[in-house]
Structure prediction request, 486 residues.
Amino acid sequence: MQPDNPYASTRGSITSKQLPAFDEAMIQKYNRSGPRYTSYPTALEFTEIADGLETKILQSREARAPLSLYFHIPFCRHLCYYCACNKIITKKNSDSGDYLEYLIAEIKLKRRLLTTEDSKNPVVKQLHLGGGTPTFLRDEEMVQLWEFLQTQFEFLPEDEGDYSIEIDPRELSGNTLKVLRDLGFNRISLGVQDLDESVQIAVNRVHSAELIENVLTEARELGFHSINIDLIYGLPHQTPETLEQTVRRIIEMAPDRLSVFNYAHLPERFKAQRQIKEADLPSPAAKLTMLGNTINTLTEAGYQYIGIDHFAKPDDELAVAQREGKLHRNFQGYTIMGDCDLLGFGVSSISQIANANSRYILQNDTDLQAYQATIDAAQHNLAIMPAVKVIKTSIKDRLREYVIMNLLCHDYIDFKDVNQKFGIDAITYFIDEIAQLGAMQEDRLVDMDAAGIRVLPKGRLLGRNVAMVFDEYLDKKHKNRFSKVI
Prediction:
């Protein structure tokens, strides 16, 4: 019998049919550049925002919708050479205090525009601090931010909400983890990347395996619900053998989730990467071997492949949500909080807000000084708001987003479900896209019938390629803006 939710599955009972199948020939055939689909349309479709529009968007959001809050902390104390982010390298402690003042000012600007049905504070189900290095904020500053947020929002109890922070294990004071846990943070993510010393030196991110293990041990003792570790394959001096050693050592530490990213070497776009010598990078063939080995090692160890570089233990919330057909994707990546409006704070942060008729994606200025100047101006003119870019999604965008996100989250799109939600005949509407998927069907990457489209094990690692077929914006002007899927 078909479950009530057509996207629910028995995925996660570790059987061969549930696991991604690594097929090097298929990856070579279909591997091309494409977006990661943390939104649809993607951020490349941003346009300049009109005066007063952000105010109207926030005032007209659905009052009952819970919130997910994101705070971008752009500072780091060390430059990692693989970095592809807009970070500010500084050791000045005063920078965090100054920046915190701007965050609090922005919170006030946005909070005054949010209405609720019962005149109480808006409900927050999720909070995430990213960067940069969020723990660049001193412990007392983190307390100050958290306590201020409690006066502006109503947070779910920590055993119901999702409150997370990214951590550089090298930048923790002796008390930071305890401070974070006492505040209510229940999930942490550690940037590790690799444990081999020669690789670490080449990318300027040196730390010991013992340091990582000690952080995980302390986090578990403090009661954090979920711990994620980030790894990267394709770094200088990395080999399939050294990465295999890293992966097996990390498995011994038993994190709840892992993110295993592909390093894309784009020194013409990212200044930090110019410190890396191309001659030191592994060959494309070696990278494919690394990927295949990593997938096999993690799945053999019992980790569920979620999609787009992410793995989780079968009892982790992400894995459970995927099996139940309740997984979502937004600018924070895979998430279980798909019913939330996303409110971003800080330089370059992104918000996603829905109202009765549309959905808006907004972005603050990506330049720190320009962002701060806008917040300063807003103190004297309440008509000024921090967003400088916007995307207004149409019903057609919402339809294609629904298809793309279900393919990426659940490896399936159910035509009957789409027909009911959008009032169309999906087979007729997507007849051209279905025709384009014919080659993938012949290669057993997907299976299509009158019920829907299912991504097969051989196609799971190429899920983005399947999704790209449904992207109306993906044309020649954007192709050089993305890294390859693998």
